[in-house]
Amino acid sequence: MNTLLIKGCHILTMVEKERPWVGDILIADGRIAKLAPVIEASASTVLPAKDMVAMPGLVNAHNHASMSLLRAFSDDLKLMDWLDKKMLPAEARMTPEDVYWGTMLGIAEMIASGTTAFADMYVHMDAVAEAVRDSGIRASLTRGLIFLQDDGGRRMTEALDLIDKWSGAADGRITTMLGPHAPYTCPPQPLKEVVDLARSRRIPLHIHLAETREEVEKIREKYDQTPTEYLQELGTFHENHVLLAHAVHLSLEDIGRLRGMRGGVAHNPVSNLKLGCGIAPVAELLAQGVTVGLGTDGAGSATTLDMFAEIKAASWMQKLHYGDPTVLPAEQVLRMATIESARLLGIDHEVGTLATGKRADLILLDLKKPHLAPLHDLHSLVAYSATGADVDTTIVNGEVLMRDRKLQTISWEDVYRQATERAKRLVAGL
Ligand SMILES: CSC[C@H]1O[C@@H](n2cnc3c(O)ncnc32)[C@H](O)[C@@H]1O
Ligand SMILES: [Zn+2]
């Protein structure tokens, strides 16, 4: 049996209220076999980890990984212009091979910055699944469904094929969802069909919601409803597990509509800042018991997939919004990036905290850096001072995907060459 012993690290289990402590972690058969102050066991591999922090891998609850090909191609635009005039035309040119290499680029960045699982919505999802399988990361995959042009049901067939073919694949690292893109791209009839199908087949849903004021105005004009009301009236929240991306523009009634929902909200603060969308009512959602996790959105808007940037932005935006530094403290925002995001992906029974029996999805952060000394409060240090570049080691399902900052399952030279060449072609003349 393959075993891995991590020795002498600071341990942040992210189990609620558990304080950090120093000890060893034994991994066997892809799972955490033991956590203790000292483990006297022989192991196939021993990782000395003094001056490092072990914590659960970060879970990016909303992404479009292959959009990394469109990073810094078109910035400083309003969301609808950015999407309609730049992103969608570039994406229409993408082949499955482009999406494979674009996803690999996104995954390389995620592994290098401590993300061990992500929720993705995109096109050519077989290629995304292949990249997840080949790289060793964990993901929940969704074929994005935009119903504005008739395509004879092709997209829906692709969405269901993805679910049939890839659910539980790659040693259980791949799970799937159904992904109607957003209220403004999904008219009532096809959206209701997707929602009902999700309920009858118990498939989780992943959808953008209430990202901009413009979206709220559009839905008001068309249906005389808020976007959240629109989803509710179609039965979206009835029994379904729903992963809502953004949820920035919610009325008090909308927040009430989400109380008791299964699933919850993926908050994407950097993307919301960059696109000038607004500040999501995170504190109010939490007060109503809604699960709130963290995501980056695609690098086309967020610019990077570094979840440590999201952790800082989430906490500091809420503090600024409420004029109150006690809002979203360090430990809580770290829980949002780990166990709460895992809940949104429906994998919290397997990952999101460090505990015996859970899958070994964890990262080691190197604390021996000028900006990470001295050590007073580990939650604060990790949430507010660390960046993705401080991640030394990334492990998923017990497999080491990065060690000493070197990617182990991905050839960075190949990804760099493929991604840079393909990206040029995708945006030429746009
Ligand atoms: C049809 S696959 C998913 C689709 O979503 C687009 N997208 C990326 N970022 C955002 C965002 O912030 N709001 C709405 N839609 C977004 C992406 O370009 C794909 O076309
Ligand atoms: Zn998105």
Automatic annotation (TrEMBL):
Residues 54-400 form the Amidohydrolase-related domain. Pfam families: Amidohydro_1 (PF01979). It is an enzyme of class 3 (hydrolase). Keywords: Hydrolase, Metal-binding, Zinc. Its cofactor is Zn(2+). Gene3D superfamilies: Metal-dependent hydrolases, Urease, subunit C, domain 1. Binds 1 zinc ion per subunit. Substrate binds at E91, R143, R154, H181, E211, D297. Zn(2+) binds at H62, H64, H208, D297. It catalyses: S-methyl-5'-thioadenosine + H2O + H(+) = S-methyl-5'-thioinosine + NH4(+); S-adenosyl-L-homocysteine + H2O + H(+) = S-inosyl-L-homocysteine + NH4(+). Signal peptide: none annotated. The keyword Acetylation does not apply. InterPro entries: Amidohydro-rel, Deaminase_MtaD/DadD, Metal-dep_hydrolase_composite, Metal_Hydrolase, MTA/SAH_deaminase. Its EC number is 3.5.4.28, 3.5.4.31. GO terms for molecular function: 5'-methylthioadenosine deaminase activity; metal ion binding; S-adenosylhomocysteine deaminase activity. Belongs to the metallo-dependent hydrolases superfamily. MTA/SAH deaminase family. Catalyzes the deamination of 5-methylthioadenosine and S-adenosyl-L-homocysteine into 5-methylthioinosine and S-inosyl-L-homocysteine, respectively. Is also able to deaminate adenosine. HAMAP family: MTA_SAH_deamin (MF_01281). This is 5-methylthioadenosine/S-adenosylhomocysteine deaminase. It comes from Brevibacillus agri.
